[in-house]
Amino acid sequence: MFEGKHGKIRELIDEIGDNHVSGSAQTPLRDDAFCLSDTEKIQSIQKDFTNILHTLGMDMNDDSLKGTPTRVAKMFVKELFGGLSPDNKPKLSTFENNYKYGEMLVEKNITIYSTCEHHLLPIVGKAHVAYISNGRVIGLSKMNRIVDYYAKRPQVQERLTMQIVQALQEALGTEDVACIIDAKHLCVNSRGIKDIASSTVTSEYGGKFKDKSVKRELLDYIKLNTEFE
Ligand SMILES: [Zn+2]
Predict the structure, then answer these.
(1) N or C: which end of the chain has fewer CB within 10 A?
(2) Residues carrying an active site annotation
(3) CA distance 97 to 78
(4) Which tens digit of pLDDT belongs to each residue from 40-79?
(5) Residue 70 C-alpha to ligand 1 middle, in angstroms?
(6) Which residues are CB-neighbours of 102 under 8 A, at least 6 positions away?
(7) Angle CA(179)–CA(185)–CA(188) in degrees, nearest 5?
């Protein structure tokens, strides 16, 4: 079925997926991405999932399966991919840095639950986010929220790392922002190569964080053992 030209395209698509190649820092959304309401999206996805499960041979009248398409559709629109909608972007209000703290601030071990856009399987891991204030500061939990917002999209880890940095650079009015993500991709751990032990590390260093000693300081903070139990 996939012969000649189509065979080549097919191979290329598989290769892009398994190599997790990413294009730009922008999530590839269409201009009409938000023309449908959430309710309309849920209705449409519900039909699609009924069809997928039916095609796989499942009896969709079975009590256990009946609610699955609706459940999955709601979960896609409202939870797993809720970060596609700009309406859900957390408000990143900043404050004057009254105490004149001039060193770096690191919010580390932020839990990440995202979804690989090539296989729609979970990406689970930790993000470490840091910035050096140039006069404005941001609420600590906002850093967790911005990580979660961009994680709730079909994602590529490199893009997620860059989107977090860019959002914070914009909010804080400084280039001096960095993000490191260490995450497991279930598409690597549970299928394909099935390497359960491997994880993927990505990093984006803006402004002063490109400096070797500043980068070193950040990495040392991340290594600190801060388990308080
Ligand atoms: Zn994947």
Answers:
(1) C
(2) 116-119, 157, 185, 187
(3) 35
(4) 999 999 999 999 999 999 999 999 999 999 999 999 999 9
(5) 24
(6) 132, 133
(7) 140
